[in-house]
Design goal:
2 copies of one chain form a homodimer. Chain A has 32 helices and 4 strands. Chain A is mainly α. A 4-stranded antiparallel beta sheet of chain A has the order 2-3-1-4, sandwiched between helices. In chain A, helix 4 crosses helix 25, helix 8 crosses helix 32 and helix 19 crosses helix 20. Chain A is globular.
Chain lengths: 746, 746
């Protein structure tokens, strides 16, 4: 690819970006889009709904949102969107800082050296091949390689210093988050699984006896987890549908003063028709408690939540091995109430190791199967091959502009589209894995997608070239550095366009929320579902974090090989910082808190990127016969590994466990202020096993809101698709129920 | 190699074994060798020293020791030699069982199939090449490969069943060991390292304040660990020498009623001359406590032993993260008093991760450097190459018998000798690593030697062939199975002779204790050191466990490839069982207890052997074009991995931590029986930081012997070499001291 083709590609993308951002600034001012662009604010109901008057201003693109996003402080973001958003934005800050330094060093130091690497007559720059700007242009045994080695040192050392400071900063934030927040019921609660069954006593008694016996001084009470039978599932589903309709009705009547009778746009069932069913089944459930069926159900109980009097007691109970059989009485600190992944709690504990292995195997298999579309993308880069595959398009492809678009733009679009299938699948794998919390599931999916992205976007694209047959290169790890060194500069073109298309374009699609916009439009004006504006999404860390980390990886690995990628990346990070700040402030609602646990993943990936960069540099210096530079790079490699080990020892346990010192101090504060008794009283209500809506409506009247921290928007979080499904299921179930009753009465 | 060469080699070895065992049965009856062959019994002083009369019987070889070793029960062994010996012998029992099954299956099932694999006219069996008995004799696509697949299934399934039972049995033994033994001070003690220094208060107060503040209800007291200065080292050394001489004098006078004046055979310094120094320095030490120098020393203290009132409190304190900075207040459950590796406690905690990485790197480097002697050994196997290398020996090598000895016997002797350098080096690495206990150091060395042995004896010998240049095969992991499949049968000859030489011969050398015998002879009759008989060694698990595990690995991997190795292995295991039982009962004295923690290492290695066997079989089936058998082997492979994962989840934590249930029950028992107070009183005395001798002599009068469990033989354990060194050092130090005093007075 020539420099001019790159400029074409950049031009298209800049145009697209400007267009989309302007479009966004217009669309966000349209009141009927408030649900799409101000989901979080609507959910918190602080956002004043403006009247629907028309003004010409609404059609003018403005940049006010950028200013608002930029001037918001970190503390404000933490308060409205939680620590995880702060951590995510810190990743952008880190990236901007390190790539500013890298760009300075590489554009002004390395790029001219590359350009004048070979004795040659240079053409006019736009007509120059991009290879001229890469390290491939340096001749062997050139003393100029010293510049690259020094640049590598500067980049690595600045990255390490910045990483260390970030890790320190975020650990401090996490500690402040743990100790500073309102009392959290999850700190007092331990999830016990794999409880041994006894013939003589009820499981309920077994649990009580065990904890009274061994943790008598600190045991408060416990709550069993029931695996739901079909009957109960039906009750729950009916209740959920009922509650949703009641809530919808209330909010509608409060706001609009309209009739309380509202209809679902699609199915047209009256909301009040569920009221009867609710009362009926609630009573049925209560009478069940003396039923032998319940006793039977108790025996099948997969676990229990045990509440302790102090946080310290809960931490101790969760960390110490309870029984001499490690497969019995398995304890974990419970997730927050809104974070518990109930349906996974019903999985018997002894299945979990098997599930983990199975999903690991499935993920690995999927990673390798996915090579096929990637190879297809790569083959599109070769114009000649493309002409063979599609002889009809030969005429079109012979035109210069189309050829540029096809080789420079289309391949990464195809890759991007095929990548869209990955997150839902990985999320499914992580659900099957058996994580007890939603945040754990998301973190696990994040890791899987990260491995997947790095493998399939970076390694496969770099190594396979266009030929799938070359895959046996993966089986020779020793030759890896020199192979990477040969192939990475060659792929610079592809990755620069990848940054443009996948990076910039994904930011535009992120801020425009294309899918939701279209969905909102259809549901509002075609299906007449007026209430869908309330559905808010939680931030998709599992897709966004791997994306940003991949761009970090690209930035580091290409920094000294092909520095031309750096300005595009820097623009991506700056734009991304503003866009995600805006989205976090306006669109996404934090449904649960991971407490900054994503940072260790980010840190490790960045260190991995640094190490990979050094390994590739090692290969380059070996190929170019620069033994002294090779030696210095090995030194740097060892230093980077040592740095990572130090960080792991210094910080990683902070993200895994609570320290005795902190929790004891918290316990003392609460005891001295007399709040402890109040906390104990409300612990039992905090975890309601019925779906969250009922819990929150019951808890709302009894429990101080900061204790439970149940968000009103949680109920609204499921998409309206699910709502329609539920209604459908409920009506089916009612029909079944009626049929069954008829059968019984016959 | 022909079958007859193998028989020659076996014949030589059987002869050598019979000779050595007879020699042993004679030598053990000579009173002047009692110190060599009955070290443990002498140390426990239960062994009645026979009078030194001469009888003709003493010169007759007998087999009485075999009978005695065989009839001893496991419980007796546990009582006299600890749980670790039992675990070690269980490894032999497991090996005998599994290789009996394997021999049955492979000798009667697989061997005839291999022999009749190709249509060929068989020669007289002794003249047959050994290759005829290996799987290399089977033609491609032969249906006979089914026999191998079935044999593999039988071997794997029986191995898994036996392994599971052993793991279960040993976990039960370990739990019984923890709960059944006398109160162990290490259960109440936590080692705290990396204590933050405060400007305003003494470290002593910092520790007390921290534990009273956060573990007030269970904190009992603490004891600081001092890093010894030069002065204190001198005092210690003098004291140690003094004590040794006093003890020697006492025991001599008690037993023989001889003069109390005894001289060291080599250096001839009077023992009583240290008495003066002792008193002087002890007083000097006491007055130091009010000295600002001590305050300074306290500031440099690397850690402390903190005693708790209950075992549960200690377990909790050791497992819970103490401070929000994970590098401060690092807690570990303390090792047993006799197991503490004091000099490593003085290492600052923040160095330890660096030391671990450094020793890991050093071990890996050493593993690869060691390939050079191995390659030399392999080149000796090629007769032609040998003739080229040593043209002078051509005449000798042309003789058939010499050629057989050189190709069949000498290579493994060379390998064996070069392997003798490994254990001391690995032990040194493990010391540098910074383990806080002697047992931890030994376990770490055991792991290192295990990796080393498997890599250098098995992989390098199999893969390198004779050519060091083929080393690049290691860099292609994908081709590994088929490569192994091709190479393993070819190396069968070498490994059969390896079993004969390294296996059988090492057992002979083990039972004869050649080194100690010679040393004893020299020291008794040439240096006149009469008291050396008391030195007893602890069992060298770090060298013996890897050896036995290597033979397991060889047995499994060659079982279906070259079944001829199995009878030799079975003989090795049976003989080894008897020999080690005898040695454990008579020779070695357990200085500390690992509590069976070696079993997980053994289990994992055996599972690794099974997996390796299956991978090689996979390669064989692929080469021989038997796709269905390949499929079934993959199934078996997955099954084995799942089995290992299950065992890890089910058992491994038992070997890492104490369970709350167990320790709370123990605490309650002690409280109810009123022993707790007594235990608390003696906790402080249990850990004496001065070398063990003094501790035991002080403790002997005050503390119930079962509480402290300090063995009288510990002091005697260091070899007399060290004693002479110490005396030398002390006299040097005295000279220095006198010179210094002179300088000061001037």
């Amino acid at each position: 690819m020539e420099f001019s083709a790159l400029l074409t590609s950049a031009g298209i993308n800049i145009g697209v970006c400007v267009l989309f951002l302007s479009l966004y600034s217009v669309l966000r001012k349209q009141p009927h889009n408030f649900g799409v662009y101000f989901g979080r604010r609507l959910a918190e109901e602080k956002f004043q709904r403006q009247d629907d008057y028309f003004s010409f201003e609404r059609l003018l693109p403005t940049a006010g949102w950028i200013v608002k996003a930029y001037w918001c402080t970190e503390e404000e973001i933490r308060q409205v969107a939680g620590l995880d958003s702060v951590v995510f934005l810190r990743l952008f800050i880190f990236s901007i800082r390190i790539f500013s330094i890298t760009s300075l060093v590489c554009i002004f130091g390395v790029l001219p050296v590359n350009y004048h690497g070979k004795e040659m007559t240079h053409q006019h720059i736009p007509a120059e091949s991009l290879n001229v700007f890469t390290i491939a242009n340096i001749v062997e045994e050139s003393p100029k390689l010293w510049v690259h080695c020094v640049a590598l040192y500067i980049i690595t050392i600045s990255a390490c210093i910045l990483l260390y400071n970030e890790y320190k900063y975020i650990s401090r934030k996490r500690l402040a988050h743990i100790t500073g927040g309102p009392p959290n019921p999850s700190h007092f609660t331990v999830l016990v699984r794999s409880i041994p069954r006894s013939e003589n006593e009820l499981l309920d008694d077994t649990i009580r006896n065990f904890f009274v016996n061994y943790h008598g001084s600190s045991y408060l009470s416990h709550q069993m987890i029931y695996r739901k039978g079909h009957f109960q599932k039906f009750v729950d589903r009916a209740e959920r549908a009922y509650r949703r309709f009641v809530r919808v009705r209330l909010s509608v009547s409060e706001r609009n003063g309209r009739s309380s009778l509202s209809r679902c746009g699609v199915c047209g069932v009256k909301a009040s028709s569920f009221q009867l069913y609710r009362n009926k089944f609630i009573e049925a459930k209560k009478s069940d408690l003396t039923n032998p069926e319940v006793v039977e159900a108790q025996k099948n109980c997969p676990g229990a939540l045990v509440f302790f009097k102090t946080r310290y007691a809960a931490v101790v109970a969760s960390q110490v091995l309870q029984s001499s059989n490690p497969m019995l009485w398995v304890t974990d600190l419970s997730p927050e109430p809104r974070d518990v992944y109930w349906s996974n709690l019903w999985i018997p504990y002894r299945q979990i190791w098997l599930r983990k292995l199975a999903t690991l195997a499935a993920s690995v298999v999927f990673m390798f199967v996915f090579i096929i579309p990637v190879a297809f993308v790569q083959s599109m880069m070769q114009l000649e091959q493309l002409k063979k595959m599609f002889p009809n398009l030969r005429g079109l492809l012979n035109k210069s502009f189309f050829a540029r678009v096809v080789t420079g733009y289309l391949p990464s679009v195809v890759l991007l589209l095929s990548l869209y299938t990955v997150p839902p699948l990985m999320m499914l794998f992580s659900s099957i894995e058996g994580s007890i919390s939603r945040s754990g599931r998301k973190r696990s999916a994040c890791l899987k997608i990260l491995f997947f992205t790095v493998w399939n976007v970076f390694f496969v694209n770099v190594l396979s070239g266009s030929v799938l047959n070359q895959l046996n290169v993966f089986t020779r790890p020793k030759d890896m550095p020199s192979m990477l060194a040969e192939l990475v500069p060659k792929q610079a073109t592809f990755f620069i366009t990848y940054v443009l298309t996948s990076g910039w374009a994904s930011l535009c699609s992120e801020i425009l929320q294309v899918y939701n916009l279209v969905y909102n439009f259809f549901s509002k004006f075609i299906c007449c579902c007026k209430q869908n504006t309330e559905y808010v999404y939680s931030f998709p860390y599992h897709t966004e974090v791997p994306k940003v980390l991949l761009f970090n990886l690209l930035g580091f690995t290409f920094s000294i090989m092909a520095p031309l990628i750096l300005p595009f990346l820097l623009v991506y990070f700056c734009l991304g910082y503003l866009v995600y700040r805006n989205q976090i402030l306006n669109v996404y609602y934090p449904k649960y808190e991971m407490g900054g646990k994503l940072w260790p993943i980010m840190h490790n990936t960045i260190v991995f990127s640094l190490v990979l960069t050094q390994v590739i540099a090692l290969g380059v210096f070996t190929i170019k016969h620069a033994p002294v530079a090779t030696g210095f790079t090995i030194l740097l490699l060892v230093g980077t590994v040592l740095f990572n080990e130090y960080c792991r020892h210094r910080f990683s346990r902070i993200f895994e466990a609570y320290s005795a010192q902190d929790v004891i101090e918290l316990d003392r504060d609460d005891e001295q202020s007399g709040r402890m008794h109040e906390i104990h009283q409300h612990l039992l209500d905090a975890y309601s096993q019925t779906p969250p809506g009922e819990g929150s409506s019951r808890a709302g009247s009894q429990v101080p809101i900061e204790l439970i921290m149940e968000d009103p928007a949680q109920e609204a979080s499921e998409s309206s698709q699910e709502l329609c499904d539920t209604v459908q299921e409920v009506s089916d179930a009612i029909n079944e129920h009626i049929t069954e009753e008829k059968v019984h009465s016959v």
